[in-house]
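FAQ

Q: What does a record look like?
A: Structure on top, sequence underneath. For example:
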């Protein structure tokens, strides 16, 4: 197990600055992902977001296995589809860097994506029901 000695690069919020493969500079056997990682993409650090955490975790795990098998690690390639926040009976979001959504559509999308990421089909169905119920309960978009 690698031991970290000395300082490592951090952002002001405490996240660790990582390389393209999510390893810590100077510590090729140590990886960070999600809210622990500060990943720079196109000159800015990615925001803390479930989507990035999900895919960073997958890439970091695969890179740990690759490193253990003596293979070269592969870079993390982020895709930013945007964000959606649920707000009780409505929601708001910003998709693909230019499309604002709000109201029932945003709330539906939030619950749908929560279910889509679930490993079990029964959980997905549960979130799909929440999404459908949110459309029925809220009336019309604002």
């Amino acid at each position: 197990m690698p031991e970290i000695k000395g300082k490592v690069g951090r952002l002001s919020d405490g996240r660790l600055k990582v390389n393209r493969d999510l390893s810590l500079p100077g510590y090729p056997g140590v990886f960070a992902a999600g809210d622990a990682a500060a990943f720079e993409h196109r000159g800015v650090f990615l925001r803390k977001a479930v989507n990035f955490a999900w895919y960073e975790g997958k890439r970091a795990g695969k890179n740990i296995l690759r490193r253990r098998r003596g293979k070269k690690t592969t870079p993390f390639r982020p895709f930013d589809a945007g964000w959606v926040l649920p707000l009780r009976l409505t929601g708001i979001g910003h998709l693909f860097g230019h499309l604002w959504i709000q109201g029932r559509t945003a709330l539906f999308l939030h619950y749908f994506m929560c279910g889509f990421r679930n490993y079990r089909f029964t959980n997905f169905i549960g979130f799909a029901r929440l999404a459908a119920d949110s459309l029925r309960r809220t009336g019309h978009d604002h």
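Q: Is there anything notable about this one?
A: The chain has three helices and nine strands.
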